Amino acid sequence: MLQGGTASIYVSDIDRAINFYTKILGLKLRVKVDENWAEIDAGNGLVIGLHPASPPSTVPSGTRGAIDIELHTTRPMEEVVGALSQRGAHFAGPIKNYKNVRIAALEDPDQNTIILAEVLPSNP
To answer: Is the pLDDT of residue 124 over 70?
Structure first.
């Protein structure tokens, strides 16, 4: 139901963040989607997702919640949310739909945000 994922970080400047992770840390840029998303390959299966912070719809960069874990779903989002809800997971609001991804947010027992992501096929 869940497999792989991304450690996502809300950043104040996506190009500056990409420069830091690639030029300073020496990691590889996997993809950049406009000014909305970038993926850094940290090796051994770890992907760092960079997403511009845009308060108030997101938390500000550098604050609690600015880094979260994103787990990829292997089934449709409604099915995953339903199954996890039955197991006791509490979701923070409805499923959100975007052009390339559907997401649902829940919290672990320590109130750390866990994002579930259903990556959608690319539209040519």
So the answer is: no
